[in-house]
What does this fold into?
Amino acid sequence: MVVGDGDMAQAKRRLIERAGGLPCPETEAHHARFGFVAMEDEKAAESVSLRLKRAGLLVNVADRPDLCDFTLPSILDRDPVMVAVSTGGASAGMAKHLRLRLETILPQSLGPLASRLSAMREKIRAQFPDGNDRRRAIDQALGERGMLDPFDPDSAQRTEQWLSDPAAFGDRTIDEFTISSDDPDDLTLRQARALGRADTVIHDTAISAAVLIRARADAVRLPLPASPPESGHTVILKRGQTVAN
It folds into this structure.
Protein backbone atom coordinates (compact mmCIF):
# COMPACT_ATOMS: atom_id res chain seq x y z
CA MET A 1 0.00 0.00 0.00
CA VAL A 2 1.05 3.58 -0.63
CA VAL A 3 0.17 6.58 1.52
CA GLY A 4 0.96 10.00 0.08
CA ASP A 5 0.58 12.22 -2.96
CA GLY A 6 2.85 13.85 -5.46
CA ASP A 7 5.78 12.60 -7.54
CA MET A 8 7.37 10.64 -4.73
CA ALA A 9 4.22 8.61 -4.05
CA GLN A 10 3.65 8.05 -7.77
CA ALA A 11 7.17 6.69 -8.06
CA LYS A 12 6.42 4.18 -5.28
CA ARG A 13 3.22 3.10 -7.04
CA ARG A 14 5.12 2.52 -10.27
CA LEU A 15 7.71 0.50 -8.38
CA ILE A 16 5.03 -1.75 -6.89
CA GLU A 17 3.33 -2.27 -10.25
CA ARG A 18 6.66 -3.04 -11.90
CA ALA A 19 7.25 -5.75 -9.30
CA GLY A 20 3.82 -7.27 -10.03
CA GLY A 21 2.02 -5.81 -7.01
CA LEU A 22 -1.21 -3.86 -6.75
CA PRO A 23 -1.02 -0.50 -4.91
CA CYS A 24 -3.90 0.05 -2.51
CA PRO A 25 -4.97 2.88 -0.16
CA GLU A 26 -4.68 2.80 3.63
CA THR A 27 -8.33 1.76 3.97
CA GLU A 28 -7.32 -1.60 2.49
CA ALA A 29 -4.28 -2.11 4.69
CA HIS A 30 -5.62 -5.51 5.77
CA HIS A 31 -4.90 -6.78 2.24
CA ALA A 32 -1.30 -5.50 2.21
CA ARG A 33 2.03 -6.82 3.43
CA PHE A 34 4.19 -3.80 2.69
CA GLY A 35 3.54 -0.11 3.27
CA PHE A 36 5.18 2.82 1.51
CA VAL A 37 4.83 6.28 3.05
CA ALA A 38 5.72 9.24 0.82
CA MET A 39 4.78 12.46 2.60
CA GLU A 40 6.54 15.82 2.98
CA ASP A 41 5.11 16.38 6.47
CA GLU A 42 7.52 14.48 8.74
CA LYS A 43 5.12 14.23 11.70
CA ALA A 44 2.32 12.96 9.49
CA ALA A 45 4.66 10.43 7.90
CA GLU A 46 5.74 9.17 11.31
CA SER A 47 2.12 8.87 12.47
CA VAL A 48 1.13 6.90 9.36
CA SER A 49 4.14 4.60 9.65
CA LEU A 50 3.20 3.75 13.25
CA ARG A 51 -0.38 2.94 12.21
CA LEU A 52 0.81 0.67 9.43
CA LYS A 53 3.28 -1.12 11.68
CA ARG A 54 0.55 -1.73 14.25
CA ALA A 55 -1.48 -3.27 11.42
CA GLY A 56 1.38 -5.73 10.84
CA LEU A 57 2.90 -4.21 7.70
CA LEU A 58 6.58 -3.80 6.95
CA VAL A 59 7.05 -0.10 6.26
CA ASN A 60 9.30 2.05 4.11
CA VAL A 61 9.17 5.81 4.70
CA ALA A 62 10.71 7.98 1.98
CA ASP A 63 13.79 9.89 3.18
CA ARG A 64 13.38 8.59 6.75
CA PRO A 65 15.65 5.53 7.18
CA ASP A 66 15.12 5.70 10.94
CA LEU A 67 11.44 4.78 10.39
CA CYS A 68 12.06 2.08 7.78
CA ASP A 69 11.72 -1.65 8.33
CA PHE A 70 13.43 -2.09 4.95
CA THR A 71 15.12 0.07 2.35
CA LEU A 72 14.94 -0.11 -1.43
CA PRO A 73 18.00 -0.41 -3.68
CA SER A 74 18.31 1.47 -6.94
CA ILE A 75 17.72 -1.16 -9.63
CA LEU A 76 19.49 -1.54 -12.95
CA ASP A 77 17.39 -3.89 -15.06
CA ARG A 78 18.89 -5.94 -17.88
CA ASP A 79 16.38 -8.76 -17.56
CA PRO A 80 17.24 -11.43 -16.51
CA VAL A 81 20.33 -9.66 -15.18
CA MET A 82 19.54 -7.37 -12.24
CA VAL A 83 21.99 -5.09 -10.46
CA ALA A 84 20.91 -3.54 -7.15
CA VAL A 85 22.78 -0.59 -5.64
CA SER A 86 22.07 0.08 -1.98
CA THR A 87 23.51 2.37 0.67
CA GLY A 88 21.39 0.86 3.44
CA GLY A 89 19.31 4.01 3.58
CA ALA A 90 22.32 6.30 4.04
CA SER A 91 21.77 8.14 0.75
CA ALA A 92 19.14 7.22 -1.82
CA GLY A 93 20.56 9.93 -4.08
CA MET A 94 24.00 8.35 -4.05
CA ALA A 95 22.55 4.93 -4.87
CA LYS A 96 20.65 6.48 -7.77
CA HIS A 97 23.69 8.16 -9.24
CA LEU A 98 25.83 5.05 -8.91
CA ARG A 99 23.11 3.18 -10.78
CA LEU A 100 23.01 5.89 -13.45
CA ARG A 101 26.77 5.54 -13.95
CA LEU A 102 26.38 1.78 -14.29
CA GLU A 103 23.59 2.34 -16.83
CA THR A 104 26.12 4.00 -19.12
CA ILE A 105 28.63 1.16 -18.68
CA LEU A 106 26.51 -2.00 -18.84
CA PRO A 107 25.11 -2.61 -22.34
CA GLN A 108 21.52 -3.58 -23.06
CA SER A 109 22.87 -6.80 -24.56
CA LEU A 110 23.55 -8.22 -21.07
CA GLY A 111 20.01 -9.61 -20.85
CA PRO A 112 20.01 -11.36 -24.26
CA LEU A 113 23.48 -12.78 -23.54
CA ALA A 114 22.34 -14.26 -20.21
CA SER A 115 19.17 -15.65 -21.80
CA ARG A 116 21.10 -17.30 -24.63
CA LEU A 117 23.59 -18.87 -22.26
CA SER A 118 20.66 -20.22 -20.24
CA ALA A 119 18.99 -21.65 -23.34
CA MET A 120 22.28 -23.25 -24.43
CA ARG A 121 23.01 -24.88 -21.07
CA GLU A 122 22.53 -28.45 -22.32
CA LYS A 123 24.54 -27.79 -25.49
CA ILE A 124 27.35 -26.36 -23.38
CA ARG A 125 27.31 -29.47 -21.18
CA ALA A 126 27.47 -31.67 -24.26
CA GLN A 127 30.37 -29.68 -25.72
CA PHE A 128 32.29 -29.67 -22.43
CA PRO A 129 31.18 -32.75 -20.44
CA ASP A 130 33.98 -32.32 -17.90
CA GLY A 131 32.96 -29.77 -15.28
CA ASN A 132 36.43 -28.22 -14.97
CA ASP A 133 36.77 -27.87 -18.74
CA ARG A 134 33.29 -26.34 -18.94
CA ARG A 135 34.02 -23.81 -16.22
CA ARG A 136 37.32 -22.78 -17.81
CA ALA A 137 35.73 -22.42 -21.26
CA ILE A 138 32.93 -20.23 -19.90
CA ASP A 139 35.33 -18.19 -17.77
CA GLN A 140 37.56 -17.49 -20.76
CA ALA A 141 34.66 -16.61 -23.05
CA LEU A 142 33.12 -14.20 -20.52
CA GLY A 143 36.44 -12.69 -19.44
CA GLU A 144 37.78 -9.33 -20.51
CA ARG A 145 38.13 -9.28 -24.32
CA GLY A 146 36.75 -12.82 -24.46
CA MET A 147 34.37 -13.90 -27.22
CA LEU A 148 31.39 -13.39 -24.88
CA ASP A 149 32.71 -10.43 -22.90
CA PRO A 150 29.54 -9.05 -21.17
CA PHE A 151 30.75 -5.48 -21.76
CA ASP A 152 30.86 -6.05 -25.53
CA PRO A 153 27.42 -5.14 -26.96
CA ASP A 154 27.90 -7.65 -29.80
CA SER A 155 28.74 -10.64 -27.61
CA ALA A 156 25.15 -11.92 -27.47
CA GLN A 157 25.32 -12.49 -31.24
CA ARG A 158 28.38 -14.76 -30.91
CA THR A 159 27.10 -17.47 -28.56
CA GLU A 160 26.57 -20.10 -31.29
CA GLN A 161 29.89 -19.22 -32.91
CA TRP A 162 31.64 -19.60 -29.56
CA LEU A 163 30.13 -23.01 -28.93
CA SER A 164 30.95 -24.35 -32.39
CA ASP A 165 34.53 -23.02 -32.44
CA PRO A 166 37.02 -25.54 -31.04
CA ALA A 167 39.39 -22.66 -30.29
CA ALA A 168 36.83 -21.20 -27.91
CA PHE A 169 38.26 -23.46 -25.20
CA GLY A 170 41.37 -21.45 -24.71
CA ASP A 171 45.04 -22.18 -24.45
CA ARG A 172 47.12 -22.59 -21.35
CA THR A 173 47.93 -19.25 -19.69
CA ILE A 174 50.30 -18.53 -16.82
CA ASP A 175 50.64 -15.34 -14.77
CA GLU A 176 53.52 -15.00 -12.34
CA PHE A 177 53.62 -12.35 -9.61
CA THR A 178 55.94 -11.46 -6.77
CA ILE A 179 54.19 -9.79 -3.85
CA SER A 180 55.65 -8.35 -0.67
CA SER A 181 52.56 -7.76 1.45
CA ASP A 182 50.17 -9.96 3.44
CA ASP A 183 47.38 -7.43 2.90
CA PRO A 184 45.10 -8.40 -0.02
CA ASP A 185 44.25 -4.71 -0.50
CA ASP A 186 47.84 -4.21 -1.68
CA LEU A 187 47.26 -6.46 -4.69
CA THR A 188 47.21 -4.60 -7.97
CA LEU A 189 44.03 -4.71 -10.03
CA ARG A 190 45.72 -7.06 -12.51
CA GLN A 191 46.86 -9.41 -9.73
CA ALA A 192 43.41 -9.46 -8.11
CA ARG A 193 41.69 -10.18 -11.43
CA ALA A 194 44.15 -12.95 -12.27
CA LEU A 195 43.61 -14.60 -8.89
CA GLY A 196 39.85 -14.32 -9.29
CA ARG A 197 39.83 -16.30 -12.54
CA ALA A 198 42.70 -18.72 -11.86
CA ASP A 199 42.06 -22.46 -12.16
CA THR A 200 45.31 -23.25 -10.34
CA VAL A 201 47.31 -21.18 -7.83
CA ILE A 202 50.90 -22.25 -7.25
CA HIS A 203 52.24 -20.30 -4.32
CA ASP A 204 55.13 -19.71 -2.01
CA THR A 205 54.28 -21.11 1.43
CA ALA A 206 54.93 -17.62 2.85
CA ILE A 207 51.94 -16.19 0.96
CA SER A 208 49.26 -15.29 3.50
CA ALA A 209 45.88 -16.99 3.65
CA ALA A 210 44.27 -13.53 3.36
CA VAL A 211 45.78 -13.21 -0.12
CA LEU A 212 45.07 -16.79 -1.21
CA ILE A 213 41.40 -16.46 -0.28
CA ARG A 214 41.07 -13.96 -3.14
CA ALA A 215 41.28 -16.92 -5.50
CA ARG A 216 38.14 -18.87 -6.38
CA ALA A 217 37.14 -21.43 -3.76
CA ASP A 218 37.33 -24.23 -6.36
CA ALA A 219 40.79 -23.23 -7.66
CA VAL A 220 43.48 -25.86 -7.13
CA ARG A 221 46.19 -24.67 -4.71
CA LEU A 222 49.70 -26.11 -4.89
CA PRO A 223 52.81 -25.08 -2.90
CA LEU A 224 55.99 -24.21 -4.75
CA PRO A 225 57.82 -25.91 -6.35
CA ALA A 226 55.18 -27.35 -8.68
CA SER A 227 54.60 -27.56 -12.42
CA PRO A 228 51.64 -25.73 -13.98
CA PRO A 229 48.98 -27.98 -15.52
CA GLU A 230 48.81 -28.34 -19.30
CA SER A 231 45.54 -26.39 -19.59
CA GLY A 232 43.63 -23.62 -17.91
CA HIS A 233 44.82 -20.43 -16.23
CA THR A 234 47.58 -20.72 -13.64
CA VAL A 235 48.77 -18.00 -11.26
CA ILE A 236 52.19 -18.39 -9.64
CA LEU A 237 52.61 -16.30 -6.49
CA LYS A 238 56.03 -15.70 -5.03
CA ARG A 239 56.88 -13.83 -1.87
CA GLY A 240 59.24 -10.87 -2.14
CA GLN A 241 60.86 -8.76 0.51
CA THR A 242 58.42 -7.13 2.91
CA VAL A 243 58.18 -3.40 2.44
CA ALA A 244 58.08 -1.45 5.72
CA ASN A 245 55.34 1.16 6.16
